[in-house]
Here is the input.
Amino acid sequence: MSNTNTNGRLVSLDALRGFVMFWIMSGEHIAHALAKAAPIPVFVWMSSQLHHTDWNGITFYDMIFPVFLFVAGVSMPFSFEKKMSVAGVNTPMELPAEEKRKIYLTMVKRTCKLLLLGFIVNGLLKFDGYSQTRFASVLGRIGLAWFFAGIIYLNFDIKKQVLWLVGILVGYYAVMKLVPVPNFGAGILTPEGSFSSYIDQLFLPGRLHSKVYDPEGLFSTIPAVATALLGVFLGTFLKSRANEFSTNKTVLIMIAAAAALIALGLVWDYSFPINKRLWTSSFVCFVGGFSILFFTFFYLIIDVLGFRKWAFPLLLIGSNSILIYMASEGLVNFGHTADFVFGGLIKFSPIVWQPVFTAMSVTLIQFILLYFLYKRKWFFKV
Here is the structure.
């Protein structure tokens, strides 16, 4: 059974990308509304998981961003496969210098586009002034982490890529724990006292997201490269190794790798707490393990067993994930449109359930837009 669609892409990747993006675009609002309208344990738990932790700790909502970045890493070996085939080489390291220069230029352009789009999502076009503009962004971190992971992938074999991963995680840990911050000392992992926050305060231009630090700041972008690299490793395994194993063994290897990373993250948590805002090394390992588990589930159900129809709504999101993210972050007022179309009907429902139906109506409008774009093959690519 084929593991890819007609474009050579793993269908499960787009489905997983759509799954995590669904909660950002409007799914979280449905869950919160359900928890208030019908506060049964499952709805209350779902709602609690769709908030970021205050500082240390982890929720499902904290995993969404790194899973998305992980998926970008998984895609990388597949995206370079055609170029390697045309050049007649087996590894990206063997690509001719001229071909690599073309790839580097493409990567730089993509990263710059993501940085610019991140600025726009943060309100660049409001022209509030340099000091009020936030330059760090989710899209910017995706672009930078993907870019540097790509540089490592293109220039080092798998053993050295692993050394890069270990070096990034251990090096980040050492700096965060051992390098003193003025007025605080070394190893103070608080919003005000961490070395990452100190770097943001010194060098990050414009406005910081949280006054004394930025969750997408400069120094904490370094371990995000490791998150992308974990995705690269999985993509490399699937592309070049999966044919050597049975499907069952492939899935078992992925589950074992996920369990090892989760265990390492939990152990490391005792010394270097799992923290999304600092993107700690323990966070990279823990969420990297869950990223593999999420992917394994979608891979097994969609690409191996062939059950794809149920995932079509997720594919609508995943195929235009950057567009719907930007639109949902304030560029499009879906709530106004949903109220115009469905508001009158919703008023006839019980008051306690009206917020639920309102949130669902926003999701429906978003899916109508995504379906329209999908049918016309209009995809926003960077």
In short: The radius of gyration is 21 Å. Residues 1-7 have pLDDT under 50 and may be disordered. The longest strand covers residues 180-181.
